[in-house]
Amino acid sequence: MASGSGLATLQHNFKLQSSVSLLPSSQSTFCGTKFTTSIQYKRKVCQPKGALNVVASSAKKILVMGGTRFIGIFLSRLLVEEGHSVTLFTRGKAPITQPLPGESDDAYSSFKSKILHLKGDRKDYDFVKTSLAAEGFDVVYDINGREAEEVEPILDALPNLEQYIYCSSAGVYLKSDLLPHCETDAVDPKSRHKGKLETEALLESKGVNYTSIRPVYIYGPLNYNPVEEWFFHRLKAGRPIPIPNSGLQVTQLGHVKDLATAFIKVLGNAKASKQVYNISGDRYVTFDGLARACAKAGGFPEPEIIHYNPKEFDFGKKKAFPFRDQHFFASVEKAKAELGIVPEYGLVEGLTDSYNLDFGRGTFRKEADFTTDDMILGKSLVLS
User: What is the pTM of this model?
Assistant: First the structure.
C-alpha cells in the first residue's frame, strides 16, 4: 500500500508473514470533491454545535474493526483527537481514510498521518488470532461485527483486553405493543440481528469487560444506508413522497456524531462495564413528519405525500420504503442517567447538518431509483 511522506510508522517487535503488517493510511478523496470549510476539533468541555469532542482520557492502544465508512469515520476522528493510538482492521478494499465533509486539508492530513492499518479478513480466524496477539491492544471497537464466531478469535488473541465496545442494534428487540423499547425488554432470537444477540451473550459468558451499543436508525453525513438520502432524492426531483399506510407510524433517528460521542463516553467508563445502552435521538417522529422534516432541512417546499397499501403491490426484491412499516423506537434514558449522554442534534437540525455537508453538496451513496414510486403512483388503488 502506498503512503505519503510524514505518515505514521510502527516499529515491529515481532515477525509475521509479509502480509501481516500495520501500515499508515493511504491518500483518498471523498467523492472527488474538495471541501474547504474547516471543522474545528478542540479540547473543551463546552463545544460549538457539531464539533466532535469529548474530555480527553488516558491514551490507549485501540483496534477498530471496520472504521472506513460512516460511524467508523467519525469515531476514529474522536479517538485520534483524544490522543489514542488507533489501528483500523479492514480488508483494504476501500480507502482507509477520507476527509470529512467540510474538513480542511491540514486537518485531514494530520488525522491521516496518525491512523494505522491492519489489512486482513476478520473471517480468517487464524490470521486474526496471530496478528492481534502479536500486536496487543487495550481496547477493541467492533463496528462491523455480525456473528459471534467473528468475535471469539479476537477475544482469544487478546486475553488482557481492557474493554470490548460493540455496535449492536435496537433491531434485536422482540416486536411489542409496549414502547419505547428498553434495554431490559425481551429480544427476538429469530431477528435478522440474532448474530448481534449471540455476540452479546458470548461477551457476557466470557466475562469480558464489554459495552454494547444498540442504535435505532442512524443518519448524518456519509450515511451509506438510504435513510435521509431516500427522501432528499425525491424532494430534489420534485416528486411526491410515497409512504406506506397511514404515515403515522412512529420511529426514531439518531445522528452519527451523537452516536460517535456515545462510543467515546463508554470508553474506560466503569458505569458502562458489562452494560447495554440504546443510543438514538431523544424524540420520536412519524413517517409523514420525517418527510416534512427532510423538506425543511433541505429548504424544499412542503412535500406532497402519497399513502399507499403495500399489500396491493409486488415490488419483487426492490425496497419501496427505507424503514420497517411499524412503530419502532427505543428509550435512551438509561444512557442519559448513567453516562450523561444527551443527544446534541434535534431532528431537523441534524437533517440540516446531513443535507448541508453531503447531499446538498451533490454527494450521495446511491443514485435515485424511482421504479417503485412509479408503480405506486401509476396504480389507481392509491389510498387517499
Answer: 0.84
